[in-house]
Automatic annotation (TrEMBL):
Domain annotation HTH lacI-type: ranges: 3-57
One Pfam family of this chain: Peripla_BP_3
Taxonomy of the source species: Bacteria, Bacillati, Actinomycetota, Actinomycetes, Streptosporangiales
GO MF, one example: transcription cis-regulatory region binding
Keyword Transcription regulation tagged: yes
Entry keyword set: DNA-binding, Transcription, Transcription regulation
Protein name: LacI family transcriptional regulator
KW Glycosyltransferase (keyword) present: no
Listed InterPro entries: HTH_LacI, LacI/GalR-like_sensor, Lambda_DNA-bd_dom_sf, Peripla_BP_I
Organism superkingdom: Bacteria
């Protein structure tokens, strides 16, 4: 048998209720009493029974995180930060992979398979705002990414338009006049791609420069390689903003394989700040979303909904980002 609240109460010379108040973090406990109870908790090595507590509260202590691709470095890194933030709430995280499939995303919205969870953090690719609004499952929900913004759920992301504009301005500031955007998607009417394309276009228009836009089907290394190879067969750009780092790494390989130099002939930049880009040759200039802040905001918003503090409209919250200038855009010389 483990240590009980009653054991702690006897040692501290207080009531079981007082010990419970200290364990649960209630503020209205006298400092001297709190110190005495905390000393007793430490001496007896008390460990709360979280399962029993969650059961009494009608909760599981488990949340779900649904992401498109777990093998994509950005989502893998973000998952770690969500797990860390959830651990501060003593939550476990069940991770679901959707592959961006409409059917699987609908299944997530209808209820996370057979798991009973207290809340869901979800990065959708295929569903839209109308399907989200028609959702019948009442599990607390927070959205990540840009597929559904200004929708009927709390949402956290970076400002993709401004981030894309900033990285494009950086490339233009190097004296590059033929700056391409690699990552547009013909089928995308909402989400990340059009927002990053809008930021690129704003910067190009501000400097009176011509647009060069390369489309891709997906945001993988192979897509970046193929799109960059096609660009090199035409009138070659002297700089390229790739809409994520995987595209940029594929594009870098295409440039180097053609016998050209990065950044001497073609400067390259991405967006996501995945670890691979910090160790590529050359290292990759990128926009670094604050993944830790994204995760913390998402978990905080989810906790508010789980706790029943839902008397407010869905929130759009922007996390920060930084421009990380590395070797792939070092000044030519």
């Amino acid at each position: 048998m483990g240590t009980s609240l009653r054991d702690v109460a006897v040692l501290a010379g207080v009531s079981v209720k007082t010990v419970s108040n200290v364990v649960n973090g209630y503020a209205h406990v006298a400092p001297a009493t709190r110190a005495r109870v905390e000393e007793a908790l430490a001496r007896l090595d008390y460990r709360p029974n979280l399962s029993a507590r969650n059961l009494r509260q009608g909760r599981t202590g488990v949340i779900a995180l649904a992401l498109p691709e777990l093998d994509a470095p950005y989502f893998a890194e973000l998952s770690r930060f969500v797990i860390d933030a959830a651990a501060e709430q003593r939550w476990l995280v069940v991770i679901e992979q959707t592959d961006g499939s409409l059917e699987r995303e609908r299944q997530i919205l209808d209820g996370v398979r057979d798991h009973r969870v207290d809340g869901l953090i979800f990065s959708p690719i295929a569903i839209g705002a109308d399907e989200l609004a028609a959702r019948t499952d009442d599990t607390a929900l927070v959205l990540l990414g840009e597929r559904i913004h200004d929708g009927p759920a709390d949402h956290v992301a970076i400002d993709n338009v401004r981030a894309a504009r900033d990285i494009t301005e950086h490339l233009i500031g190097l004296g590059r006049a033929r700056v391409a955007a690699l990552g547009a998607q013909d089928s995308s009417i909402s989400g990340t791609a059009p927002l990053r394309l809008a930021g690129y276009r704003q910067a190009m228009a501000a400097h009176g420069l011509p647009e060069i836009v390369a489309t891709v089907e997906r945001y993988h290394r192979a897509d970046g390689f193929a799109a960059m190879t096609a660009l090199l067969e035409g009138e070659r750009p002297d700089a390229v903003f790739c809409f994520n780092d995987l595209l940029a790494l594929g594009a870098m390989r295409a440039v180097l394989s053609s016998g050209l130099r990065v950044p001497g002939d073609v400067a390259l930049a991405g967006l996501d700040d995945i670890e691979d880009g910090r160790y590529s040759t050359p290292t990759l200039t990128t926009v670094a979303p604050d993944k830790s802040e994204l995760a913390r905001i998402a978990v905080d918003l989810l906790k508010r909904r789980i706790d029943g503090r839902a008397g407010y409209a869905p929130q759009e919250v922007r996390a920060g980002y930084r421009l990380m200038v590395r070797e792939s855009t070092a000044p030519a010389g």
